[in-house]
């Protein structure tokens, strides 16, 4: 049963996770030149180790049977997002790849939650998701034009689907009573195993430099381990569709950090995109905070 009193704190946790996610691009820009695929795989490997250590230190849950299906889907979602997203960006450009991947994830998570839980997303979610995705599109357009490639768009949709599957599967495991730390350690631990071939076959020479090691540690610690623990704490009390929409705060953080840290100067289109995303997130967060508590719902 969901506790409505915990919903504001849960939303805050997801927004803080999005803030952590948003540091990824700046960290990569400040680090050495390296293959994005190997950076992504190294990030997951470092994050998995840290999550396993956290789980060992703090998780105190009774032995419970793990549902293999959701656990496997969560791990596939972790690995699939890394591979599909970076391949999409390489094929069709950062702007198109980002907007399709980020924009499709909330819609796919909402559709998946509807099919699995027989619970259609509400009007507030639909309005918020529409606004937030429009804002992401404006940010992407502000970043420059790209040639649209059908295979690249398909890969970006695959990245969005992978993220949606991870979110839905993690929600299932959390609803089954598993600890936040255990669910994230399981998903990222097995996800890292699936990405071992990338680390074995890819060029990891960048890790040997001080800047490369610092980048790998930051990416594994902040936008992975810390971010996904916050993400999961929010996901325990919110629908997967709402969580996927709230994480669209990530590009806002990335744009602000780009301006403050990297000296980028966002134009009017980028500023408009940021404001539209923030408006969408406000639509999602505010209406239900002012209404009577909704009837208790029992996740499937």
UniProtKB/TrEMBL annotation:
Residues 1-29 form the signal peptide. SUPFAM superfamilies: Multidrug resistance efflux transporter EmrE. It comes from Baekduia soli. GO terms for cellular component: membrane. This is EamA family transporter. It is a multi-pass membrane protein. Belongs to the EamA transporter family. Pfam families: EamA. It comes from the Bacteria. The chain crosses the membrane at residues 39-58, 70-89, 95-116, 123-142, 148-170, 182-200, 206-231, 243-262, 268-286.
